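Field: COMPLEX_INPUT
Field: COMPONENT_COUNT = two
Field: RESIDUE_TOTAL = 597
Field: MODE = joint
Values follow.
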Amino acid sequence: MDPQINLKPSSPAAAGAAIECKELTKKFGDFVAVDRISFHVNPGEIFGFLGANGAGKTTAMRMLCGLSYPSSGHATVAGFDVYRQQEKIKQHIGYMSQKFSLYDDLTPLENITFFGGIYGVADKVIKERGPALIRSLGLENEASKLVGALPLGWKQKLAFAVAMFHQPRIVFLDEPTGGVDPVTRRQFWDMIYEAAGTGVTIFVTTHYMDEAEYCNRITIMVDGKIEALDTPAHLKQRFACDNMDEVFYRLARTARRSDS
Amino acid sequence: MVKCSSMKKNNPNSAPAADHADMPIIADHISKSYNKGAVNALRDVSFEVKKGELFGLIGPDGAGKTTLFRILTTLLQADKGQARVSGYDVVKDYKQIRSSVGYMPGKFSLYQDLTVEENLTFFATLFGTSVAAHYELIKDIYDQIKPFSDRRAGKLSGGMKQKLALCCALVHRPTVLFLDEPTTGVDVVSRREFWEMLQQLKRQGITILVSTPYMEEAVRCDRIALIQNGQLLNIGTPSQITDTFPVKLYAVKAASIYTLLKDLRSWTQAESCYAFGDLLHVTLGPHTGDDLALIREYATAKGHDQVTVQRIAPSIEDSFIRLTTTNSLQYGSADQS
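Field: COMPLEX_OUTPUT
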């Protein structure tokens, strides 16, 4: 499999940070879902975004994807402002999650064509790159099948390729490997590494702590705040833990709230 | 146990056979397909769960775990094979099974617009018992959600929903408990808590069949079955399964781990190599000489710094990877037999 052909960003990666976040906050009434989080993500970085259920990950991600306005603070994504340039952000990012990714009742190529069209990829380009993508994913034999009939692992790989099809600079992956078998999970991470190698920034959440190790840096959110942000190696050192599972447990067990 | 004696009288054949007394769950050559045979969800699955055992069904989404649960809890009929739960036949004696087992489906299936307490009372009533009757069994779990007893179930957090669902599955003091992916999508902290709850239930003598896609949870079970593409790959205690790993396994590390992964993959001497947390797990093909030295020399020759190589004991995930990549059961080959 060679997913690389479609992974080159259309425009040179921004000279500055791919994502820049300062005191970003989201309140729902009295409830502070995201509490003054600050961080930056470098172009081409694999950035792991971890936290217990209800820590505020999804809310933070929604703001960064241009789907919800912050209550206060600043953030830019691919150089665009999260208050004023939401539509620009959406054009320049890719997004996939375990929950919503592709249409089950379309074929792989139909999904590619549909999402490519939504993201404004020219018909001519879709006609060229769509079938090439199917080949690179090794899906030629499944071309006439509906996506719903594919094994989960293939679906997820296809969903990632679709999220990358319009050559975004940043891709947000929300638990992309949930429930996927160990072999396919690793193949998926190969695709992530390939993409990062071409300069695409990867922002990823996961419940698999071994996957946290594959990230360049990770944050751990607890009760709306960022409790830790560093490389996996430094975090293990700092908390004197053998693995990320232990680091996460030590930080997250003090959480007072869970998801609602 | 619920008072459903009238049912038992109606069906004299349904008494549990004495020789099944120590095996609350028996699956005997179970097969099930969907879409007129296009999808083989289960293929000739056989296993037994002993009385008081915490038995784990370990495998990814789409492996057939839920189909197996639905057959064992009498909600679906197998195409072939037989199964007994608490000594009762899953087809003939479905009523007895339904009244004596607890089932927590993977999808949250309580009434969202009933409160915590109303849900619990409702399920107790369905099983012809009361919340008070077996309260000691659920007390430790229920205490954690009791402050929210007036809250509608739909408004609970994921962790609390999970605890309520477990209470509802236990309210009639089942002899066998079926838990379908109770920890999926749940964070590390809640997952640990949940497994501790299961250990407590086990101590109370309840037989538990639990499924999970998280390989590392396997070690918390007495015995496990690894499942992929509708087939059981292996059954045994976690250590029995890792002990049968057929070759030596090495953990390799270097400054640039991703480059090392690529280099080792292109090495003809490496039989397999995959990432495992911050390490690479490597097995070697046949050769003469010292394994450790061979790997270290290769990595160093490729220009890697800070190379460390160590022989390690395989984990369940290593065993699963080995079984699924060497038994021609690779992912995506669902039609292969």
